[in-house]
Structures are given as C-alpha cells and as structure tokens.
Structure prediction request, 114 residues.
Amino acid sequence: MSTIFDTTSKMVDRSKELVARTFEYYQLKAFAQVSYLLSTFLKIVVIGGLLGIGLIFLMVALSIYLGAVLNSLALGYCLVGLFMFLVTMVLYWKRKFIENLVVRKFSKNFFSDD
Prediction:
C-alpha cells in the first residue's frame, strides 16, 4: 500500500511541476509575442512618421515645381492633390489585400512553435 501512495504522491508532484512549467512557458511566449508586436509597432510609427514627413516635403516641392512649369502655383498644388487622391483611392480599393498580407505576416509569427 505504501508504494501506491508513493507512486501517487510522485505523480501529483510531477503534475504540479508540469503545470508550473507550462505556465512559465506560456508566460514567456506571451512576453515574446508582446515584445515583438510592440517593437514592430514602434518601427512602423517611427519609419512611417519619417516617411510621412519626407513625403510631405516632396509633395510641396513637386507642387511648387509644377506650379512654376505651368505658370500657376494653384494648378501645381491641385495636380499633386489629385495624384495623392488617386493613390489613396487605389490603396482603399486594395485594402483587403493589404489586410490579408498583414494578418498572414503576424499570424506566421504568432502561431510559430519557436
């Protein structure tokens, strides 16, 4: 009877250890995923912000240049505004493709066994 009690006691101890280790594993996995998402978000914000500022300067310069070529500054700004509107519309029409691309990229990282 003592061996059954010892075996049961060892099994309970090992089960507790397994639960504790599994909990630690999922804590580390969650930390890794949150760290990855935060670093990706930060990179997107920083790079996107700098890219946006650069794009604004380029669009203003292009507007001024087109205004000088066409002898109408307002027409230069209108053409650049129309171009930006068209780019926005194309991105809006392709939003499902962009969403699917983002979901595939993040799901590959989130559901990996690493």
